[in-house]
Amino acid sequence: MALAVVRDLRELREPASAEELERFETDALAGFVLARASAGLADGTIRGDVGHLDQVRTWFGRPLWDMEPAEADAYFGRVLRGSPSGTRLARSQAAEWSSARSTR
Predict the structure, then answer these.
(1) What is the number of other CB atoms lying within 10 angstroms of the CB of residue 45?
(2) CA geometry: angle 53, 56, 62, nearest 5 deg
(3) The whole model's pTM is what?
(4) Rounded Cα gap, residues 38 and 35, in angstroms
(5) Could you say which of 21, 35, 62, 94 is the most buried, measured as most Cβ atoms within 10 Å of its Cβ?
(6) CA distance linking residue 33 with residue 78, whole number of Å
(7) Where are the alpha helices (DSSP H) in 1-104?
(8) What is the tens place of the pLDDT at every residue in 65-88?
(9) CB contact burial 46-55 (16+ within 10 A = b; e otherwise)
(10) Which among 58, 46, 27, 21 is positioned nearest to 97, based on CA atoms?
(11) CA angle 10, 12, 14 (to 5 degrees)
(12) DSSP letter at 40?
């Protein structure tokens, strides 16, 4: 087996348009829902997880894969400071699961 030079494809491709990013984000969310459903989670649980992700996404204003640790700290440490611990836990678990899936 020989080694080959790997080129950065970003040099050969135009940056994604806003529409392409929106479609990709929708596809990623659909994958999240399908994975949760195939794992046997109840529809209500999945609906709640999607709602938590939507609230984090609305606050952030950009796709969640762009969120840096400092921004997550700001959301979970300041914005949700007065929220019940169950709310903080549910949102952090949904966001963590979603970000883990989008990086694979």
Answers:
(1) 14
(2) 100
(3) 0.69
(4) 5
(5) 94
(6) 28
(7) 18-38, 43-60, 69-74, 85-102
(8) 899 999 988 988 888 888 888 888
(9) beebbebbeb
(10) 46
(11) 70
(12) T
Both tokens of 91, joined, read 């949102």
Total residues belonging to the chain = 104
Per-residue pLDDT band for 6 (boundaries 50, 70, 90) equals confident
The confidence band for 93, taking pLDDT boundaries of 50, 70 and 90, is confident
The pair of structure tokens assigned to 77 is 């440490």
Phi/psi at 83 (5° precision): -75, 155
Task: Quote the tokens at residue 59.
Answer: 């606050």
> In the structure encoding, which two tokens stand for residue 1, read together?
């087996």
CB 72 within 8 A of CB 95: yes
